[in-house]
Structures are given as structure tokens and as C-alpha cells.
User: What shape does this take?
Amino acid sequence: MCKHIDKKLHLLKSTSALLTLAFTSGSLYAVTCNPADSTTVDKVTACISQTHMTKMMQDFQKISDSNPDYTFINFIKKGSKTPPGSRDSGTPGDKASVKYISDYMKSLGYTVTVQSYEVPYSADKIIPILDVTAPTLTSYIPGKDFSSAVFSGSGDITAQIQPVGAIIDAAPPTAPSASGCNAADFANFISGRVALMQRGVCPNRQKVLNAIAAGAVGVITFNYSDENTGNTLLSPDGMTVPVYAYIPYSIGINLYRQALAGPVTVHIKADVLTEIRTTYNVIADSKYGDPGSTVVLGGHYDSIFGAGMLDNASGVVSMMEIAAAMKDTPTVNRLRFGFWGGEELGLYGSDYYVSNLSSADLNKIVYNLDFDVTATKNYVFNISDPAYAIANPSGSISDASLWKSNAVKASALSVGLFKNYMDSVKMPYYFKWSAVDISGSDDDTFIIAGTPIGSLVTGQGSGKTKEDVALFGGTVGPFDVCADTPYVFCDNIDNTDPVVQTKVTKAFAAVTVGLAFDHNIKTSSGQAVYKKGTAITGWTGKHFKP
Assistant: This one.
């Protein structure tokens, strides 16, 4: 997908202009919407239009469709002459997305800055192979049963597998497994074999590097759940062998049990592209509000494995809709919209943004709202609460130990605002967003830097339970089967629900108004305090009254 962008940009520019005209004419909105007076929950939510958001979602789909990604030349679908479209980092679809977002935000009157930076990029050039060749032949399905880790090495090998360290044979595991975390785990490892390890305790990158140092020619790391969740090794440095992670627990534990009973030989074939690419952040500032007290609304615009409509055009469109709803409203605190690149590769965009702020400028950021997946069909409404996540650990490694305690406490403010609004409209919710989940999105960057965070997510991957169905409806099983799923390229617009997106966007809008007109919230000297000097502790949920 590294070609053919210039011919598409004039079309996108025209589309953006039409969207702006439609908005400013008021034709898509009820008469109660006034973007110059979105000062209360009722007023701002009146400006959230499902029709308008659907049009923007369609535009992002067109961007992907118009930009085939030639990285995936070996993934051409039957009946097509070109590889799938994409908005992955460093592709023409990436650049077209940046232009579309920038043009739109400028048309609303925001001051727009585009940052560019380099990121390591990784993608499979072929559909990978994982077969058991002895004692009996078993072929596993790529994408469903296994996938290459981001930044995996390449190779075509046939070798015996060898379990490493203290693998826990329980479903689900009773504790996280440290298998492979220490060099001592490989004391009896035989060079030339494939290391089989279990997820947990330390980063998979650490386990893989230990395995390579011990002479492993391939690595398989299996999950603590029955899900192929994928994994990023964070950097291609030192990754000289194929790495599959995280494969489902049921497959991994079966390989483990077979290996205990006798020799098991596997065939692994992976051809992974790793290179340095340029990608972007789009920063859009409101002309209103105190710049010394800035609320950052952030979400990643990049995709992986295709159009990325659920993950995360949905979140970006929710942000853009709120930006339109509040474009002329004189707020107390300044609103800043950050559209991050490189998230799917390892939170590179938000990390670049935060790490390049001076201490003084970082101190001006009082809150971060993260928009990441807002339109799941088989949805839940999951409020992110860092304090709850810490109190209810999932057992897997996360960044929770790096979160600043003051920011964790102050995140209760957004939790209360979400609850207040959702209670008022009888919108069910729960708190199952774990520390691992938070660590996988851009708000993790902010809370590590000491900024309070808030989010509402609708779910992706597997995990919807009977209890979830009783609360939210839908069906037991995956929230969705397309977002971030390797090799299937099906996270298209029909993988999203506009009604769900509208509800979630209104909830975010309500919280945004609450933060935008809060006279008291302030971060100072690395400690979350009110401007009056009262520490944010024991907050009752009544700080803001819509």
C-alpha cells in the first residue's frame, strides 16, 4: 500500500468541504443544537448526530478502499486485483487519514499542528504456517489459532518443541506463569529447538530474548485465555527467529501435554517485514479556554490489518463529532484533540507527543479522555477506572505499577461523570476494563506521566459472558471477530454499530462538558490538586452538576 496517494487527495478535500457545509448549515442537526452554546450536557448531546458520524465513517472506509496496501500483496482476496486497503502506519492510507482529519478540524476553526516521527513497522508478508508434523499431523489456522507477534523474526524451520519453566496446567491458570522470564528457566534447553512458554509475569519480549540466547530457533507463547490475542515485541532489535504469540490456551496446553508425553515436531514458516516508517500525530486546539488548564481528548487513527473501522475510526469519528458540537463554545478549560498515529505498533504516537512536552507544558494538561473503540455491534459499556483495575488485578503483566497514584485518584472524576450521565439516560455500564486493557491504549501514556484519565469502551475480541448478555443484550462469545485480527481484513464499516457509537459519543460529550467547565480541576507539580489546593480524595461524584 505504499503507492497511489496523490490522485486521491483532491477527492478527500472535496469530501471534507461538503461535510463542513452540511454541519454549518445545520441540515443534519435538530434546531436545539448550537455549537456556540454547548455548555450543558443536554445542549452538547443535542449536537451529536448519528447521520453525520455515519458519513464520516463512510469517508474513512473510502480512504482505506482507495489505498490498497502493497505490503499485503500476498493477501489478495478472490475476485480482487489489488491487495486490501489499509490505514496502517506509514502508508498512503495513513497520510490520507491525516489530511482528512486536519482539513476537517481546520474547517471547524481549531488550530491544527501535525507532528511527524519515525516508528518501527512490522507486518507479515505471507500467511504464516504452524503445523505439528509428528507424532501426528495437525495444521493450525492462521489468525484464529495463531499469529506472528509484531516484530517477530522470519524463518522456515522444522524442529522439536521444548516446554520452558513453570508452565501452569490449569484452565484458566490459577496464577500468572513466569515461564521463560529468567535465564535459569533455560538451563536444560537444547539448542535448535522451539521454545514453548506461557504468558505472564514479565514481558514476552524478555522471554523471547532469553529463548534466543539459549539457542531457540523459534518461539511459541500461549495465552492464559482461549483467545489468540496477538502480541507486540515492541522492537525488532534482537528478534532473529519466528515468534508466535499469544496463541490460545487450549492449543498451547495441548502442545505442552504432548511434549511431556514424547517428542513433538512442528513446522513454522513466517516472513515478516520490519522497517522504519514515518507516521503522524494531529493536534487540534480550541481557541477558547485557559491554555494553562487543558483537557486532551485523544484517540489513535491508525489501523492494522485493513480499514480499522471499529479500531479505531469509530473513536476518531466520536472525537470529531464532539469537536464539531463544541467548536464555538467558550469553555473554561481549553480543549485539545489529539489524533495519535502508531498506536497499533506500541503506543508510539501518544508516547512521542507526551515525551516531547516540556515539564511546563505537560503540567498544563489537566485530563485525558481516551477514545478507543466506540461502536462494537455485540457491545458492552465498560467504564475505565484505574483504581478499580488496580484493586482487581487480572493476573497478567501491566503498567499499573508505573501509574502515578495522584492520577489514579483524580481519574475518579471522569468515572463519576460517566456514571452520572449514563444513570440519567438509563444506559447500563460496568467496570471490567483491566490494568492490562488500559496498558494497551494511549491513556496509559498519560497516566504514567501523571495525568488523570477516563474512557468508555464497547469491547473487541472475545469475552462476552452470560452475565454481560443479561446486562447489555447480544450474544455470548466474541465482542467482534475482525478488529486487530490478523489476515482477515474485515474490520470494515459493517463491523460497526452506529446506534452504539451515538450513545457512546453522547456519553463522552457529557464528560467533556463536565471537564471543560470545571473551574477547580488542575494538575500541578506532579500532584493532582484543585486550583484551590484541595487534594482530590474522597470525591463523591457530585463535583459537576449538568
In short: DSSP finds 17 helices and 16 strands in the chain. Residues 127-270 form a domain with the Glucose Oxidase; domain 1 fold (CATH 3.50.30.30). The chain has two domains: 6-120+277-530, 127-270. The longest helix spans residues 6-25.
